[in-house]
């Protein structure tokens, strides 16, 4: 699958982790949450309905499988999966593990406090853990 240009804000606010069958998987630069972003590698797409039915299915599959795995890994109380795109029109899906008592609980994470960027050591640790989780997952039928 060809690489597509990423919105500059996605590049600035997140770190690349790996490529899934449909999406690039990235880690949001906010250490308060385990917050992943799925970006379908399809040019010019800003809404889920603009994807083919097959790609819509695969996008949801990737979000659900990743979400289930990271929620279990972090013993989360809730998993938030959302597509907003008000600030960044390129289609991307947020997958966020939530805990009662986290910095934004019970509200959404957007606009709550200041992001706490990863330091290099913790970033390396989280990347390694997420990649270990993802490496054992099968994303296609």
UniProtKB/TrEMBL annotation:
An MF annotation (GO) of this entry: catalytic activity
Entries under SUPFAM superfamilies matching the protein: HIT-like
Domain HIT: 36-105
Xref: InterPro entries: HIT-like, HIT-like_sf, HIT_Hint
Pfam family, one: HIT
Protein origin, superkingdom: Bacteria
Name by which UniProt lists this protein: HIT domain-containing protein
């Amino acid at each position: 699958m060809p690489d597509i240009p990423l919105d500059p804000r996605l590049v600035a606010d997140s770190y690349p982790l790996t490529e899934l069958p449909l999406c690039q998987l990235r880690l949001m630069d906010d250490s308060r949450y385990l917050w992943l972003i799925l970006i379908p590698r399809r040019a010019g797409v800003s809404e889920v309905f603009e994807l083919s039915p097959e790609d819509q299915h695969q996008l949801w599959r990737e979000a659900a499988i990743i979400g289930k795995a990271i929620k279990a890994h972090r013993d989360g109380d809730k998993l938030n999966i959302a597509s907003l795109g008000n600030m960044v029109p390129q289609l991307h899906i947020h997958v966020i593990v939530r805990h009662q008592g986290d910095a934004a609980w019970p509200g959404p994470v957007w606009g709550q406090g200041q992001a706490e960027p990863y330091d290099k050591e913790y970033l390396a640790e989280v990347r390694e853990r997420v990649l270990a989780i993802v490496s054992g997952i099968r994303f296609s039928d």
